[in-house]
């Protein structure tokens, strides 16, 4: 009987596990769209160079206490599943080998070391209480991204079928599949919030369910009748946070003999009353202001707003402040069906790709940097920008700034069309670059929306390329960087023939 060929994702997980210190060094395993996210006990046991050198790894990002291995869309979820199984199968593991025990090839090592130093510095600067709070709030929404993507794609397909008049018998079913998750999104936010902040997940979901319960129409707050879903995900987030605080207070003061009865009852009762008679109204006003503000921003100052948002998004990512935008995106998707902010912010990735291509052409004499760009560009085109940011543009300095110029130009292009009446939005968060095309939606039909988004990418590519090609280097840096630090050896002379 022929041996079974191992799953390549299983093999990748098995190869990565010892490189991060073994199962005994892992405290948490999770993933987002493109990254395997690990909690590690001892950072010194992680072999950074070996992890980065693995052929399946596109890059490494450290975000506070989380060690994130960039694997790309699709692969991240599959490798995470195998990785989690390996960790569970080895709950007590011997310490992994120390750094440097496995010889690994280094590509553009000088830039890699500089990028690692910048990454470490960023992680240290991001370790403030406010940014840690932002990361925890982002952790509430990141697990929801796969469902948002799936429902968004089904909604797009359903829209095409409805507009074309085809398959009328199946479009109601597709509409139900696309809308059901959004209708109950608040409940999932409540579950994840309680889980992230130390409460009981099902209690978090129970208090968040109050927000979407149809019976709230019988209740008045601040002189107005409530409506189901009023306050949306922000109301659910606030309700679950309050429930977690009340539950933890109850655990300290309620006697153990009646804890199982009183704690959940008091938590749901008190949180429910506050949610119904205050939180839903306040969160509803905030949510409405977010939607109105986003529309007004792009409709009245679209080109300028796009320039600013597209140009500053990469620095926001470096500062860790981009995580504050995730609840805003989710609120807009819940309200309007799509977020108009994400396509503008996605232009930052286009500027990054254009800048990397310019570096490739300007540094013709540096084989190692060109090899890094060649391997990272495909990921950059589909919205995975970390390999290009930390391996190329940020360590080089100026190309990071010119990449932001490209993002600003692409954002201004998309924002200009918003001013002219063509809104471009995304039905999900997470994807970027070319991967966002199936999820774009607007007010002028799929064709016009795709054309504007594609045009923005082209403008971002070109602006990032031109800005980097002409202004990304001075004459001294060009001379230094065009000297290949690792030239290929000359071929040995052939022996003389007799």
Task: State the gist of this model.
65% of the residues lie in helices and 6% in strands. It is of the alpha+beta class and 498 residues long. It starts with 7 loop residues before the first helix and ends in a 17-residue tail after the last helix.
What does it look like?
This protein is of the alpha+beta class and 498 residues long. It contains 18 helices and 8 strands. The strands form 3 sheets. A 4-stranded antiparallel β-sheet has the order 1-2-4-3. It is globular, with a radius of gyration of 25 Å. The chain starts with 7 loop residues before the first helix and ends in a 17-residue tail after the last helix. Residues 92-107 have low confidence and may be disordered.
Task: Give the helices and strands, then pairings.
Elements: H1 8-19, E1 26-31, E2 35-40, H2 48-53, E3 59-63, E4 66-70, H3 75-89, H4 109-125, H5 129-141, H6 145-164, H7 171-183, H8 185-197, H9 201-212, E5 220-221, E6 224-225, H10 232-253, H11 256-319, H12 325-336, H13 341-362, H14 367-381, H15 386-396, H16 398-419, E7 424-426, E8 440-442, H17 446-471, H18 475-481
Antiparallel strand pairs: 1-2, 2-4, 3-4, 5-6, 7-8
Helix pairs in contact: 1-3, 4-15, 5-8, 6-7, 8-9, 8-10, 9-10, 9-11, 10-11, 11-12, 11-13, 11-16, 13-14, 13-15, 13-16, 13-17, 14-15, 15-16, 16-17
List keywords for this structure.
single chain; 498 residues; alpha+beta; Gyrase A, domain 2; 3 domains; four-stranded antiparallel β-sheet; two-stranded antiparallel sheet; 18 helices; 8 strands; 65% helix; globular
Series of H and E elements: HEEHEEHHHHHHHEEHHHHHHHEEHH
Mean pLDDT, as a whole number? Answer: 85
What is the count of structural domains?
3
Strand order of the largest sheet: 1-2-4-3
Q: Report, as a whole number of angstroms, the end-to-end distance.
A: 55 Å
Low-confidence stretches: 92-107
User: What's the shape?
Assistant: globular
Helix content: 55-70%
Largest sheet: 4 strands, antiparallel
Number of DSSP helical runs? 18
Give the C-alpha Rg: 25 Å
- Briefly note the structural class of the backbone: alpha+beta
Strand residue percentage: 5-15%
Number of strands: 8
């Amino acid at each position: 009987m022929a041996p079974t060929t191992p799953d390549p994702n299983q093999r990748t997980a098995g190869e990565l596990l010892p490189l991060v210190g073994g199962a005994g060094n892992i405290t948490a395993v999770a993933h987002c769209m493109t990254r395997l996210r690990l909690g590690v006990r001892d950072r010194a046991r992680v072999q950074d160079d070996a992890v980065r050198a693995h052929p399946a790894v596109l890059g490494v990002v450290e975000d506070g206490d989380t060690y994130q291995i960039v694997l790309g869309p699709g692969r991240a979820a599959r490798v995470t599943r195998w990785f989690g199984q390996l960790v569970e199968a080895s709950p007590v593991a011997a310490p992994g080998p120390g750094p440097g025990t496995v010889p690994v090839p280094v590509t553009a090592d000088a830039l890699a070391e500089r990028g690692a130093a910048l990454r470490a510095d960023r992680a240290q600067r991001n370790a403030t209480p406010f940014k840690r709070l932002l990361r925890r709030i982002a952790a509430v929404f990141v697990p929801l991204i796969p469902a948002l993507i799936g429902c968004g794609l089904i909604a797009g397909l359903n829209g095409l079928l409805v507009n074309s008049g085809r398959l009328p018998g199946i479009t109601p079913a597709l509409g139900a599949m696309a809308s059901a998750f959004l209708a109950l999104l608040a409940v999932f936010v409540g579950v994840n919030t309680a889980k992230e902040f130390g409460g009981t997940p099902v209690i978090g979901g129970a208090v968040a369910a109050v927000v979407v319960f149809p019976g709230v129409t019988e209740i008045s707050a601040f002189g107005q009748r409530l409506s189901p879903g009023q306050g949306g995900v922000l109301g659910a987030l606030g309700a679950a946070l309050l429930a977690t605080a009340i539950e933890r207070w109850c655990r300290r003061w309620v006697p153990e003999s009646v804890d199982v009865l009183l704690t959940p009852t008091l938590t749901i009762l008190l949180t429910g009353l506050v949610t119904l008679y205050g939180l839903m109204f306040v969160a509803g006003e905030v949510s409405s202001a977010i939607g109105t503000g986003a529309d007004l921003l792009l409709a009245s100052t679209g080109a300028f707003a796009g320039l600013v948002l597209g140009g500053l998004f990469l620095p926001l990512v470096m500062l860790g402040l981009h995580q504050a935008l995730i609840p805003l995106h989710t609120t807009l998707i819940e309200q309007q069906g799509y977020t108009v902010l994400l396509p503008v912010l996605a232009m930052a990735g286009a500027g990054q790709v254009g800048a990397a291509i310019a570096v490739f052409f300007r540094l013709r004499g540096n084989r190692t940097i060109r090899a890094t760009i060649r391997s990272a560009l495909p990921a950059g085109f589909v919205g995975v920008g970390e390999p290009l940011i930390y391996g190329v543009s940020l360590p080089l300095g100026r190309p990071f700034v010119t990449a932001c110029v490209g993002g600003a130009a692409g954002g201004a292009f998309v924002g200009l069309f918003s001013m002219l009446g063509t809104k471009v939005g995304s039905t999900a968060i997470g994807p970027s670059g070319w991967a966002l095309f199936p999820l774009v939606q607007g007010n002028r039909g799929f064709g016009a929306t795709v054309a504007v988004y594609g045009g923005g990418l082209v403008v971002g590519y070109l602006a990032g390329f031109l800005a980097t090609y002409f202004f990304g280097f001075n004459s001294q840096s060009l001379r230094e960087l065009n000297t290949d630090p690792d030239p290929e050896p000359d071929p040995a002379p052939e022996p003389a023939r007799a």
